[in-house]
């Protein structure tokens, strides 16, 4: 990896739910706005199912380098999408990982499978806490033991938490 950071961003409820039937169980415009503001100009990494779940007009997410992980060698994606078939050589490979431009970060934007497999590489986490519990079949992994909470901000209908990985002495 170059000088950029690997940052996970997600919205989860009080039971760690992030999705149901390949969609997000709530609609929070203030969170979508924040997601857009944080990730614009950077690289976004997502699983194929999360890519499928995006509305057609947001495929690919504008003004971001979109990277989609899939094991399907024959899968086709719209122009502007970069496809990876495995993760390790990109994030921890001998070539130093993802070539990022100066000032660019790699934002891991889900879903559950992709969060789980990239967790060891995360430098920071931007987590939106959605009040209550929802029906879910996709969850955000436990990461808190290895991170410290830097800031917590109340939104209108949710809270915005920012964590950084704890220093290992
Ligand atoms: N609340 C939030 O912040 C948030 C954010 C994002 C997503 N979500 C939700 O999360 C759910 C989707 O999560 P998910 O876990 O089902 O799917 P996902 O992580 O989005 O995508 C899984 C897919 O990624 C590909 N993949 C996984 N591991 C791979 C590997 N090692 N190498 C290559 N490709 C690999 C496979 O694609 P192929 O099957 O094509 O091989 C796999 O089916 C949806 O409900 C979505 O709405 C919520």
Task: Briefly say what this structure is.
The chain is an alpha/beta fold.
Describe the 3D structure.
- By secondary structure, the chain is of the alpha/beta class.
- It has a single domain (6-165), classed as Dihydrofolate Reductase, subunit A (3-Layer(aba) Sandwich), CATH 3.40.430.10.
- It is 17% helix and 31% strand.
- It is built from four helices and ten strands, in the order E-E-H-E-H-E-E-H-E-H-E-E-E-E.
- An eight-stranded mixed β-sheet has the order 5-4-3-6-1-7-10-9, sandwiched between helices. A two-stranded antiparallel ribbon has the order 2-8.
- The protein is globular.
- It starts with 5 loop residues before the first strand and ends with a strand.
- NADP nicotinamide-adenine-dinucleotide phosphate binds at residues 10-11, 18-19, 22-24, 46-50, 53, 69-72, 75, 85-87, 109-114, 117, 138.
Bound ligands, named by name, code or SMILES? NADP nicotinamide-adenine-dinucleotide phosphate
Low-confidence stretches: none
CATH 2nd-level architecture: 3-Layer(aba) Sandwich
The CATH class, by name, is: Alpha Beta
Q: Any idea what the shape is?
A: globular
Global mean pLDDT: 93
**How many domain regions?**
1
Oligomer: single chain
Q: DSSP helix count?
A: 4
Within CATH, the superfamily carries the name Dihydrofolate Reductase, subunit A
What is the beta-strand fraction? Answer: 25-35%
**Quick one: biggest sheet?**
8 strands, mixed
The name of the CATH topology is Dihydrofolate Reductase, subunit A
The assigned structural class equals alpha/beta
Distance between the termini: 22 Å
């Amino acid at each position: 990896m170059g000088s950029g950071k690997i940052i996970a961003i997600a919205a989860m409820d009080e039971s760690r739910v992030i999705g149901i039937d390949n969609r997000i169980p709530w609609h929070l415009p203030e969170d979508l706005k924040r997601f857009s503001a944080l990730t614009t100009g950077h690289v976004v990494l997502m699983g194929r199912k999360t890519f499928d779940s995006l509305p057609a007009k947001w495929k690919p997410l504008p003004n971001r380098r979109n990277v989609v992980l899939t094991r399907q060698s024959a899968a086709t994606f719209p122009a502007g999408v970069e496809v990876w078939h495995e993760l390790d050589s990109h994030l921890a490979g001998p070539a130093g990982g993802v070539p990022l431009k100066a000032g660019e970060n790699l934002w891991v934007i889900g879903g559950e499978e992709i969060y789980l497999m990239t967790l060891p590489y995360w430098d920071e986490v931007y987590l939106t806490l959605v009040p209550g519990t929802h029906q879910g079949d996709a969850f955000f992994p436990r990461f808190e033991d290895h991170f410290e909470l830097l800031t917590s901000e109340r939104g209108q209908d949710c809270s915005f938490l920012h964590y950084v990985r704890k220093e290992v002495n």
